[in-house]
Every structure is written in structure tokens, then in C-alpha cells.
Amino acid sequence: MSNLPLYTTMALTISLILVALVALTIQVFYFSPIDPVLLKIPSPLSSNSSTKNNQLQNVIKLGEGFLKQPEDVCVDHKEGILYTATRDGWIKRMVRNGKWENWKHIDSSTLLGITTSKDGGLIVCDTALGLFKVTEDGFSVIVSHANGSQLIFADDVIEASDGNIYFSIPTTKFGLHNWYLDVLEARPHGQLLKYNPISNETVIVLDDLAFANGVALSKEEDYVVVCETWKFRCVKHWLKGINKGKTDIFIENLPAGPDNINLAPDGSFWISLIKVTSENMGFVHTSKVCKHFVALFPRLVNMVNRVTKSAMVVKVDTEGNIIKKFGDNDGKIISFVTSAVEFEDHLYLGSLNTDFVGKFPLQNA
Ligand SMILES: *[C@@H]1O[C@H](CO)[C@@H](O)[C@H](O)[C@H]1NC(C)=O
Ligand SMILES: *[C@@H]1O[C@H](CO)[C@@H](O)[C@H](O)[C@H]1NC(C)=O
Ligand SMILES: *[C@@H]1O[C@H](CO)[C@@H](O)[C@H](O)[C@H]1NC(C)=O
């Protein structure tokens, strides 16, 4: 090359760079696992320093070291027993005296939402197999298929007093471990399903939800609420009364993505919020090219996704107003809080980033 004229060398170099860029672009678009649209992320203003709330740093750590990423918690009110499902496939429980025990083992690392069942025992979501019923006697699958297809990614569940079981499928396109691709794609693939144990049928209640996550029933069971994580809102679907069959927005413009939701004793709801994007990475969601790039490189996903860096829970009244807000802004003590359950003046917090359940006193908070 040394005796080629300078301009030829330059032209060659530029051509090579162009070819490389074109190849890279083709590669990015051809191999991209997503077909994205743009997404509006809430402005980080809502967490300005003067409104920082770090009250969750006062949590008491229950079962520390014994509970591997306890995503969801529920309470058997009659017995005062707290249950959680951990990544090692255990349903663990804390009895009245504060002692934790291994209760039942299901061979799975993907147990998510759990709820108490009216006739005793628990209903547990497993992203691989569907819904389990777990009792003193053991466990069995209650819903594994819908219309002949295996259920994948059952996420959260609630049982109504008529026996119907409502549960969410965040995304029918991506699995649990690729959930962030659903955020990047920003097309709604989530569903709220209802299983009727009498007819043994599963029907779609709501389709095209934006990452259908937590599910809760109102105190009167006249509506069911389901959270749409990357739309930063929750919707309510009426089950009774003149609005039966209608769907309204329950709360929107949440400061972060709603995860699980649980009914509070006073009829309002506790919602845990996860920060789906770090503040300086918001631009990724406004560019399709960036989305394709990030989707291809797991390391980039970890830079953009910020769920493990902070914690926030809000209490929302039946009108959809935030009436309480607690956080651990920098995730110093607790982060990635996925569920908040109120029982006897305390909040019990599940998390996918801890080895304990957080216990937060509500009196004076
Ligand atoms: C931060 O929040 C406080 C309280 O809501 C508000 O008064 C203040 O103007 C906000 N600051 C900025 C920079 O937005
Ligand atoms: C419920 O339906 C499934 C198929 O969808 C079937 O495998 C199962 O045996 C049925 N259960 C009962 C109790 O009828
Ligand atoms: C199964 O098919 C029935 C009839 O087409 C439909 O109403 C129901 O929503 C379907 N359920 C699921 C989970 O797709």
C-alpha cells in the first residue's frame, strides 16, 4: 500500500469503514430479537433530591441469609403466618414466634406470585409450569395449559371468593429471563387470564397489556386491578355492577414501573415500583436504533435496566391517588422491591435482590 497515492489509501480506508458500518447495521437489525417502538419514560423530576425518601432504609431484615430473592410474600391472616417463594424452589414461612422454616419444595427457580387460597393452602405461579396449589399434603399443578398451549410466564395471582383465579402473563413473546426485551420492544404482549375451577377453563380477561404484572382484587371484589409495568399505570376491570366488563385506568403516570399490587386492610392498595431505566439512559427508549443495539448486547441491557438500584412503594387509594410513598432511593438497604403486603401495621417487602424479607413499621411512618 505504501506506493499507492495518498487519496487511494484514504478512499480504501473510508470504503472499508463504510462496509464495516453497513455490515454492523445489517447484523444489528437482522439479529435483533425485538421489533421496537418508542417509549416515553416518566421524567426523573419526581425523584428530585428534596423529595428523596429513604424511609425504607429502616426495614428490619427478616430471615436474612435464609431467603434467596423472595419475590412475593403473602400472609395467612387466620394463623398469622407469612409465606414467600424463593429462587431455590422453596415455599418458606415465618410462624408467629418469628422463626422461619422450609415448608414445601417445588423444583423450580422461577416461582413468582403467591396468594392464600380460601379453602386453605396457597396458589403459586411458576413461570415454567403454570399455577400450583400448595397445601400441607404437597403440591399439584392446577393450570398448566390454556387452549392446548403450555402457559409460560405466569407472574402474579389472586383468588376470588367465588373460586375464580385471576392471573397475569407479562408477555407472551419473551420469557422471564428476557423480560427486559419486552420493555425495549414496548409493544404490549401481556394478558390477564381467569381460570374457572368449575368449568376447568382459562379465558383471556384482558389482552395487549404492557407487561401485565401485579394482580389484586378490590375489597368488595367488584373489580380486579392489573399493573402494566412499562406503561407506568394500572388498570381496573369491573367484575360486578353497572360497569361490569368495562376497563378503566386505575392510576397512571406512576413515577416508576408498577410491579406487584396488594390490597391493604383499609381497601386501598400497596404497589411496589421498579425503576426500569437509569436516569441518564432514558434516551435509549427514544431511539429504535439504540433499542436494537441494547437488545443484542446483554451487558448494555444491564447498564440501561436499573431495577436493582433502588426501591419504592406507594399506597394508592381507591380513587387512584397516591397517599403514601416510601423508598430507598439508592438501594442502600433494600432494592428491587417487587411486593409490599400490609399486615398488623407493618409492610412486608419482597425483593428480587435481597436474601431477606423487609419488615417496615407503618405506625408513625
Ligand atoms: C423538588 O421537589 C420539591 C418538592 O416537591 C419542589 O418544591 C422543588 O421545586 C423540586 N425541585 C426541582 C429542581 O424540581
Ligand atoms: C382440566 O383440563 C385439562 C386440559 O386443559 C385437563 O388436562 C385436566 O385433566 C382437566 N382437569 C379436570 C379436573 O378436569
Ligand atoms: C381459549 O379459547 C376461547 C374460545 O376461543 C377463548 O374465549 C379464550 O379466551 C381462550 N383462552 C386463552 C387463554 O387463550
Could you please describe the fold and organization of this structure?
This protein has 365 residues and is mainly β. 13% of the residues lie in helices and 39% in strands. It has 4 helices and 26 strands. The termini are far apart. One 2-acetamido-2-deoxy-beta-D-glucopyranose binds next to loops.
| Count of domains | 2
Shape descriptor: globular
Report on the biggest sheet: 4 strands, antiparallel
N-to-C span: 74 Å
What structural class results from the helix and strand content? mainly beta
**H/E element string?**
HEEEEEEEEEEEEEHEEEEEEEEHHEEEEE
> Which topology of the largest domain does CATH recognise?
Neuraminidase
Bound molecules: 2-acetamido-2-deoxy-beta-D-glucopyranose
**Individual helix count:** 4
Supply the CATH architecture of the largest domain: 6 Propeller
Contiguous runs where pLDDT drops below 50 for at least 5 residues: none
Q: Helicity level, as a percent range?
A: 10-25%
Whole-number mean pLDDT: 93
Number of strands: 26
Key structural traits:
globular; single chain; 365 residues; four-stranded antiparallel β-sheet; mainly beta; binds 2-acetamido-2-deoxy-beta-D-glucopyranose; Neuraminidase
Could you give a quick summary of the protein structure above?
By secondary structure, the protein is mainly beta. It contains four helices and 26 strands. The protein folds into two domains: 1-31; 43-361, Neuraminidase (6 Propeller).
